Structure formats: structure tokens, C-alpha cells
Amino acid sequence: MKILIVYAHPEPRSLNAALRDVATKALTAQGHDVQVSDLYAEGWKSQVDRADFPSLATEERLVATAASKKDFEAGTLTEDVRVEIEKLLWADALILQFPLWWFSMPAILKGWVDRVFAYGFAYGVGEHSDRRWGDRYGEGTLAGKRAMLIVTAGGWEEHYGPRGINGPIDDLLFPINHGILYYPGYEVLPPFVIYRADRFDECKFEPVAERLRERMQSLFSIPPIPYRPQNAGDYLIPSMQLRSELGEENASGFSLHLDRDNERRSLAGPGRNGTQNSG
Ligand code: FAD
């Protein structure tokens, strides 16, 4: 299988770099092909601006969505973006790896998403009518592929627990997992999170490296997070509200978009979001 790691850390001797190497070696040892987009090393341009849209006339007002659509369809997006799009189409699995900075990804990685997830490629895909709201949330260009996060955090695991002051880690990562990865179709795997990363030393490293090797072993078999697909009947169109009879009573927020029944089915055997892409 083919795996793309999009990696965002400015220091080649960092903990993140060491963990990236562990993941890469583990995947390569299993016979997979691995490519790494090392955003800092490559000097990735993170901001969206006029320079991204070669066919935009000088006097024309920049509307980023419209310009993205036009240049994506014409194949005229800038070469750095086209190369990353080709890598995404090539890869069976995508890994985003980064240190948690202000409860999210470093700006350079967000800028990679902003520029590479073009209109017509990652959004604005599929039939948009009173029956379907486009191909997104489980459907879309990247459907059938898997994605996951490898994240280091300075905070304690308890601080990211269900009652922790930082908020639950699954909620903090929801905009990335659901909004960025599930949106264009990826099956999203549970994240691999390393807590108290600033306190790391040699004796803490090896057990974490071993857990990471194990996660790389199960990249194509572990059940994904059971997000609800948009177009399978769980949501009303056009309001895109979850049907009132679904979700646990009085539940609200991000967890509503998890299909717990489907999760139970997929743990018991192949299911809607289950193991169809294992291999
Ligand atoms: P490094 O600094 O490279 O290393 C961390 C430790 O691991 C060091 O002690 C180092 O000696 C050791 N180490 C490195 N490599 C190895 C190796 N190969 N073997 C053994 N030990 C090794 N944290 C949060 O929880 N929430 C936040 O919102 C948050 N926001 C932040 C915002 C900013 C701008 C910054 C700079 C930090 C923030 N942090 C936050 C902390 C951040 O998440 C951690 O600093 C980061 O995850 C640590 O990863 P690193 O790769 O940078 O570690």
C-alpha cells in the first residue's frame, strides 16, 4: 500500500522527527511505499493569496473559492499544489503529523490544507440538489482511503480527558478529523496522541515508539471513527440536521455525529464504515 505522511515541525532533531522516522521505518518494513511531505524543510508557502491562482486577471477581485475552482478544473494551480494533489491521489492512506500548537495544527500545515484541498478536488464535489448535498462527509474524491493524525501535546492526558480543563482531545481534533479529513471522503482512524511530550527522555521514548509501530501495523485494519455519512439518511436535507430520533437522548455537540450503533456493528464484523478497506 502507499502512504503519504504530511509532516510539520521546524526542527530536524525534534521528538516529532524521531517519531516520523519510527513510523516511516515501520511502514517500509511492512512493504509499504512511503512518501513524506516535510513542510518546513520544503519551505511550504502557507498563505492563500493571488499568487496561487495564475489565471486570475490582475484587475479581477480575488474570490478564493471561485479562483480555486477555475484553476483546479483547468489544471493550472501552482506546481507545488498540483504535486501535493497527485500525492494524495497516489496514497491509500494519509498521515498528518504535528505538535499541538494552541490546540490545533501549526499554521504551515493549516496552510497546506487551505491550498491543497482545492475546490472541485476536496470540496464542491458531487450532485448538489434537494436530494444530495454534494459528495462530502464520507463521500468525495478521497473516499476509500484512510487518514489519521499523529500528534504530540505538552499537556497531560488527564487534562484532555472527558472532564479535563483543556476539553476532550476528540473534541479538539474534531475540526481536523471530521471537518478536514472526513469531509473529502477519508475514513478517519483514531488519532495517535503523545501527551507530556516536553518531558520526554530516552526511557519514555522506546515504549511510545513501540506503540507507534503497532499502530502502523494496524493502519489498514483498525476500525475508523464511526462518523455518520451525510447522504445515507441520518441527516435531513437541506437543513443538514441530524434526525431527531438519532443520537443519544439530550446529547449535543460533536459526539452526535458518531454512529455508535454502526461502531458496535463494525467491531462485531464488516460494516458500513467498518473493514471494507482493510488490506
Ligand atoms: P521536542 O521539543 O523536540 O522534544 C520534547 C522532549 O523530547 C525534549 O525533552 C527532548 O529532549 C525529547 N526528545 C526529543 N527527541 C527525542 C528522542 N529521539 N528520544 C528521546 N527523547 C527525545 N501543548 C499542548 O498540550 N496544547 C497546546 O495548545 C500547545 N500549544 C503550543 C503552542 C506553541 C506555539 C508551542 C511552541 C508549544 C505548544 N504546546 C502545546 C506544547 C507542544 O505541543 C509541545 O512542545 C510539542 O508537542 C513537543 O513536541 P516536539 O517534537 O516539539 O518536542
UniProtKB/TrEMBL annotation:
GO cellular component: cytosol
Start and end residues of each Flavodoxin-like fold domain: 1-202
Keyword Oxidoreductase found: yes
Keywords: Oxidoreductase
UniProt GO molecular function: NAD(P)H dehydrogenase (quinone) activity
Source organism superkingdom: Bacteria
Database matches in InterPro entries: Flavodoxin_fold, Flavoprotein-like_sf, NAD(P)H_dehydrogenase_qn
Residue segments, region Disordered: 255-279
Stated family: Belongs to the NAD(P)H dehydrogenase (quinone) family.
Protein known as: Quinone reductase
Organism whose genome encodes this protein: Roseibium aggregatum (strain ATCC 25650 / DSM 13394 / JCM 20685 / NBRC 16684 / NCIMB 2208 / IAM 12614 / B1) (Stappia aggregata)
